[in-house]
Amino acid sequence: MNTSLQGNGRVVILGIYVTDLTFRAGRMPLIGETIAGTAFAMGPGGKGSNQAVAAARAGAEVVFCTRIGNDAFGEIARATWAAEGITARASVVEGVSTGAAHIFVDDNTGMNAIIVASGAAGTMEAADVDAIEADIAAARVFVTQLEQPLAAARRGLEVARRHGVITVFNPAPALPLDDDIFPLCDYITPNETEATALTGVPIANADDARRAADVLLAKGVGAVIVTLGEGGALLHSASQSILVPAYHCGRVVETAGAGDGFTGGFAAALARGDDAVSALRFGCALAGISVTRPGTAPSMPTLDEVNRVLSQPAEAASPLS
């Protein structure tokens, strides 16, 4: 597998930035109840921005398109992108705040529950994509999600397809989608919950994920990747069906951002020329490191850290029968 960069591949990501407000406690409070938390942290987040940080730390040249407000959270966003070497195409919307996310983290398991308010990024339009068409045309991979309006995500996929750029669509959070969006996706990367919402197929194991993936292939997707948490990730296409086990890199501290890390790492690996299975392993290793650290964007590892994990003996990818 190619785990060293042979020149930086460009990844363009369309999505949102929010400032994460993370609370840790032993359990979720009930409605009307107040409980004591064990910790609080504030830091950069948002699916698109997290993916941009993951891809940049993995060695990709990253362009990130979003909208922010003219406020303190917007300043945190700019400082984050500058520190990571990310080229930001971030329009400032006056009178609308930069987005924020409330993240509850269970101290016992590291699992999370999240409320996202997209703020200024929630006003994005197809015109935002048109403004960065030159960036997309010069990229190897384009990535988007569904925290910003669907019209912007769709335009991004359309523009990338028109220029022959690899498209990676992370359908999160899951929304009802018209079938004509699926043929625009070279890769679609739902987790189990999102895959079930898109297909109606309940997922309890990799075989269920394969059945759900078949539904998406029938709709025109090039290849489906269903992320399965501790179960790893399934790559399923017309030509192959590969389950890559999760990489266990230490005690799970926080799972928020792991899916973003996977998608950003997968895109970075594709952009530098890795094949889909190698890119899948890279994304799984990156996510496996991220869950051992607190935060979303701050938890993303460097390329050297991911390569060290990949250099160690691990279970071979297993074809599904």
Automatic annotation (TrEMBL):
Q: Where does the record place it?
A: Cytoplasm
Q: Which residues act catalytically here?
A: 260
Which EC main class describes this enzyme? transferase
Task: Report the pathway entry.
Answer: Carbohydrate metabolism; D-ribose degradation; D-ribose 5-phosphate from beta-D-ribopyranose: step 2/2
Q: Which residues bind ATP?
A: 191, 227-232, 259-260
**Which of this chain's residues are annotated to bind K(+)?**
256, 290, 293, 295, 299
Provide the Carbohydrate kinase PfkB domain boundaries: 10-302
InterPro entries from the UniProt entry = PfkB_dom (IPR011611), Ribo/fructo_kinase (IPR002139), Ribokinase (IPR011877), Ribokinase-like (IPR029056)
* Regulation acting on activity, per entry: Activated by a monovalent cation that binds near, but not in, the active site. The most likely occupant of the site in vivo is potassium. Ion binding induces a conformational change that may alter substrate affinity.
SUPFAM superfamilies, alphabetized: Ribokinase-like
Q: Gene3D superfamilies, from UniProt?
A: 3.40.1190.20
Self-association state and partner proteins as the record states: Homodimer.
Mind telling me what this protein is named?
A: Ribokinase
